[in-house]
Amino acid sequence: MMADSAFPPWRFARFRFLVRFRDNAILPPYKGAIFRGVFGKTLRKLVCIAPQAECRECAFAAKCLYVAIFEPSPPPGAPEARKYLKAPRPFVLNPPLTNRQSFHAGDSLNFDLVLIGPAIEALPYFIYIFQEVGKKGLGRERSRYDLMRVESVREGQRAVIYEKETIFADRLHAETGPVTRPGDAAVREVTLELLTPLRLKVRGDLATDLSFGLWWENLSRRLGLLAAFYGEGREPDWDGLSDKAAGITTRESRLHWYDWERYSFSQKELMKLGGLKGTITFAGELGPFMPYLRLGEQVNLGQGTTFGLGRYGLGRGNTISRGCDGRQE
């Protein structure tokens, strides 16, 4: 495999958290908001030493872990990143894909976490926080759980990096992307499976259909932002790929709209966050896009990526954990 020299590389690492319920639990069908919400609130309580201050105006913002994760600023010496008003957050919290809502004491559940750039070094905080959340309880029933294990997931291989109160830091190995693989140049067809709701906007409205051009416009923007903030401080040279994207056609589309809701404590209102799910197959000279499509699999796409929205997989035969293991580990 070869790195793409036109793309500023950045590091990412994937982790799988396995929890086991101590109490019976009732969770929503889509569990992204419940995991993401408790993490944000708990992290701020843990690290904030000036809770009355606005984060961006706080005198301690430059050294604050909460700001680095939830209100990131352009890194020093990154002029291209500074032109953006809002930074992409350096993590993706992918909830279990199961729609199951009722869990019994002894049942287990897993969810995935992707950390990007400097956020990788904050993994011990994530582990500690999800331990604490388990003690206080999750969901409307405040159901307690135990954090049983955390695994590092890399290129299909998994290694235990936390178990029985011990962190095995030497087993943590980050990946760098994107990379070109042998056979990429020959790819003429690819199927994308939208695993969680995808929310893309076109002229202010949510897209209810997809073309490859729209997909690439949004994917290249997200990867470019991540490169500018967490790579070498510069955006990629896309080398005319936008023009090539216009020549990619849709072979088959089996997309549908999926609605879900979450209550926002910050906005004090119930929010509708539906999006596209299903599969879509594109055809054409897809080789130049494959390294970026694979990288996008790791960091999701569209609105709400930190809740796990916009998660997709390449190909119909992807082996992806649904996140629910019953009474087994």
From TrEMBL:
Residues 192-312 form the CRISPR-associated protein Cas6 C-terminal domain. It holds the Pfam family CRISPR_Cas6. InterPro entries: CRISPR-assoc_Cas6_C (IPR019267). This is CRISPR-associated protein Cas6 C-terminal domain-containing protein. It comes from Desulfobacca acetoxidans (strain ATCC 700848 / DSM 11109 / ASRB2).
